[in-house]
Design a protein that fits this description.
The chain has 208 residues and is mainly alpha-helical. The radius of gyration is 17 Å and the shape is globular. It has a single domain, classed as Orthogonal Bundle (TorD-like), CATH 1.10.3480. It starts with a helix and ends with a helix. Helix 8 runs antiparallel to helix 9.
Length: 208
């Protein structure tokens, strides 16, 4: 049986997973249902921030929000929604990190479409929404510095998506000293810069 707190967490992450995906017909078609789901959450930062983004959706044409999404997440590296990027950049170590996400998804019976990476924040939130709350929470906590850096970058861009990322962060325990220090280092130094792509990830997957 799902504990009450876990049920609310799954609801919050379900809404966040939709909001952090590309704003297609799924988002706009489900807006009323998402608003109702947010209304079931307890008062506080998570509900307020998710509700604020849904109000933004209500007054923003789909084409305009889609253009903002692409300009923000696809064209600005500092606003990367892929959590392992912040810790590993485009280095070979990122392949092993991606496999940990992939294994967590598979253990929950969650298969991605071809070409999707498992560390997208929306995917991790969906993993939690599907019931793997503890596994998704562990991945989010392990990559808390990257999550905080993404939130800060979106705030600097004055993007409404900053509120959604902040809502996800608010579902986690408060960031500890190490996470805060790691986020500051990432902000100052940026991710590792070895430009080798994700070939090791593909090779390791093909061999399984």
């Amino acid at each position: 049986m799902t504990a009450p707190g876990e049920g609310r967490l799954r609801t919050a992450h379900m809404v966040a997973s939709v909001l952090l995906g590309y704003p297609d017909d799924r988002l706009y078609g489900a807006r009323r249902a998402l608003e109702e789901a947010v209304g079931t959450l307890p008062a506080g930062e998570v509900r307020d921030r998710l509700a604020a983004f849904l109000r933004h959706v209500a007054v923003t044409p789909q084409a305009a929000l889609a253009a903002h999404y692409v300009a923000t997440f696809d064209l600005k590296r500092r606003c990367c929604p892929y959590l392992t990027y912040y810790a590993y950049g485009d280095t070979r170590k990122r392949g092993a990190a991606l496999l940990r996400f992939k294994h967590a998804l598979r253990a929950a019976g969650f298969e991605l479409a071809d070409g999707e990476l498992p560390d997208h924040l929306a995917v991790v939130c969906e993993l939690s929404a599907r019931g793997a709350v503890h596994e998704a929470g562990r991945l989010l906590r392990e990559h808390r510095p990257g999550l905080e850096l993404l939130r800060t970058a979106l705030e600097d861009e004055r993007s409404p998506y900053a509120g959604v990322v902040a809502a996800v962060a608010a579902t986690l325990p408060p960031a500890g000293r190490r996470a805060r220090e790691a986020a500051l280092r990432l902000a100052a130094e940026g991710p590792p810069a070895e430009e080798v792509g994700l070939e090791p990830y593909a090779v390791m997957e093909a061999s399984r």
